[in-house]
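Weekly modeling sync, notes
Attendees: AB, CL, MP (scribe)

Item 1: holo prediction request
CL wants a bound-state model with fe (ii) ion before deciding which constructs to order. AB pointed out that an apo prediction alone won't tell us much about the pocket. Agreed to run with the ligand included and paste results into these notes for async review.

Input as submitted:
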Amino acid sequence: MIFRQLFDQTSGTYSYLLASRRGGEALIIDPVLEKVDRYVQLLRELDLKLVKAVDTHLHADHITGLGVLRDRTHCITVMGEQSGVDVVSMRVTEGDTMEIEGMALDVLYTPGHTDDSYSFLLADRVFTGDTLLIRGTGRTDFQNGNPRAQYESLFGKLLKLPDETLVYPAHDYKGDTVSTIGEEKAFNPRLQVKSVDEYVDLMNSLNLPNPKMMDVAVPANMHIGLVQEEVKRKGWAVTTEEGLALLGRSDIVLVDLREPREREKYGAIPGSLHAPYPDLRENVQKGGMLYELAATSGKRVVFYCAFGERSAMAVQAAQDAGIALACHLHGGLDAWKKANGPVAS
Ligand SMILES: [Fe+2]
């Protein structure tokens, strides 16, 4: 496994780069905007293809690198279902798995620091965001934080992991890099409480100043979605209403770019073909499945995904590869469902 813990000194943020092998797919957790050049360089040096950029929650102390990484690497962005972010490519929730080639992380919903806080478990290690820090816990006094919910996330979920599980937090301000669940249970001062009420009192008495960057970081981090209007202006988008009118037409092929997990969970547009986003480059090149389909049958390829981000990137790639009739469903299945479009399970 390739595992890199990367540090942003200004905000005290840890970002984590994961991959199962050199030359394979990679995932990054909690990237920081100012460090994107470094990540891209490291990806190149290790011959990795970034496919997912994930934030554990909407950060208040730094601007996320998610949007810029998506624009530069065509990776997809991932956050929790509850997040107030405008658009990410994929949303996850408790019990999901987040997969890349050779690696699957369990998704744990751990609210309390914010209401969109998640942790990610990978075999012997857990990425705890700002829920569980080394000898601390994330503050609960803004962004819909809730000490009671955090107590549950800690005592009901994270501390139930095996004692030897490695703890990798999103921040540290003292120079610690890693801990274990057993160590935190024994020595984390915030966890030495006898009841939920005692924890709530402790968290409510902290009186911390707001993070320096908060007024800048929170609004910036809420607006990271790809600008789908650009694609629309080029005439490469169909609205849900237009999409509905195209359903069942023989000169159209709807292509679902989502992962099998998303199709199972949320259903799919009836009659659509499944061609997952990670295989896109291959599929749209000459000789690829979608290229041949478009070239030989003359069908118009209409990409769709969850929220329209993957499909907006796909339409650009398809156009670049010479599939001139390619377009995408603006707003994805989310917009489709809101317009009462049919969905098959
Ligand atoms: Fe945070």
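Recorded for review: Residues 309-320 form the longest helix (12 residues).
Action items: CL to compare against the apo run; MP to circulate these notes.
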